Amino acid sequence: NAGVTQTPKFRVLKTGQSMTLLCAQDMNHEYMYWYRQDPGMGLRLIHYSVGEGTTAKGEVPDGYNVSRLKKQNFLLGLESAAPSQTSVYFCASSRPGLSFEQFFGPGTRLTVL
Amino acid sequence: GEDVEQSLFLSVREGDSSVINCTYTDSSSTYLYWYKQEPGAGLQLLTYIFSNMDMKQDQRLTVLLNKKDKHLSLRIADTQTGDSAIYFCAEIMNNNAGNMLTFGGGTRLMVKP
User: Fold this and answer.
1) CA distances from B71 to A30, A65, A77, B34 (A)
2) A14-23, A81-90, B24-33, B63-72: lowest mean pLDDT where?
3) What's the angle, vertex CA A43, arms to CA A42 and CA A44, rounded to 5?
4) Residues of B in contact with A92 (CB under 8 A)
5) How far are the Cα atoms of A8, A75, B92 from residue A90, in angstroms, in the given order?
6) With DSSP H G I counted as helix, E B as strand and the rest as coil, what are the percentages for chain A, rounded to 5?
7) Could you report the per-residue pLDDT of A4-45, keeping only the tens digit for each?
C-alpha cells in the first residue's frame, strides 16, 4: 500500500497563476483533508470531505477550492495564486472508528512569487 | 474557536528525558494525539490517549493527561538523536462528522549528542 500520496512535491507559481494539487489514498478511507502548514502555526484545515461527492470548508478556506469526484482522490485548487498562499500543503485521510487516526501524505511545498 | 498551545522549542542531551507540554481548550475532546514530523516529511501518529485515561505508556513514550487543567504532556525516555523532530499535539473537535483535529503549533525537539 502506498498510503497517502501527493503530487507534485514542489511547485513555484507566479501571482495570479492557477494550479491543482492532487491527493490520492489507497486505504479506502471515507474522510480526506487538506491542511496548510506555516512556521509556528501548526496545521490549519483548509477543506475536508466526509465522502465521495461531498466537501466542506475548514478553518482557512478562502482562495481555495476542492473536489472529491472519486473516493480515493481529493483535489485542491488555487484559482489565482497569491504570495500569502506560499506554504507546505498536506493531505490526510481517515476512517470512522477507533482512535480516528489521520494518515498524512508527504506534503507539497508551494512558493508563490 | 479552540486553541491548542505548545512551546516552540526544546533542547535536550542524548540519553536524557524529554517532556513536551500542551494545553488545549475543548474539555469535551474524546481523543488527544501526539504526532511527529521529521524534516521534509508528513506527520506520523506517535500515540494517542482517550479522555477517560490519565496516563498511557508505550515503550519509551509516556502520555499524561490532566483534564482538570486541560494539560497534555509527552515524555520521551532515553531521548535519542533520531527523536529530533517537530512534535504536534492535537485534539479531536467535538461534535464533528469528519474526525477533524485542531493542532498545536508544534514543538521542535533538538537532541544534542
Assistant:
1) 31, 35, 37, 13
2) B24-33
3) 120
4) 42-43
5) 11, 12, 18
6) 5, 50, 40
7) 999 999 999 999 999 999 999 999 999 999 999 997 778 999
Yes or no: say if B73 and B88 are a contact pair by the CB < 8 Å rule.
no
Report the alpha-carbon distance of residue B55 to residue A100 in Å, rounded: 19
Residue appearing with cell numbers 500500500: A1
And the C-alpha cell for A101?
A: 487516526
Contacts A56 to B, Cβ<8 Å: 98
The one-letter amino acid at A81: A
Nearest to A90 among B42, B98, B100 (CB): B42
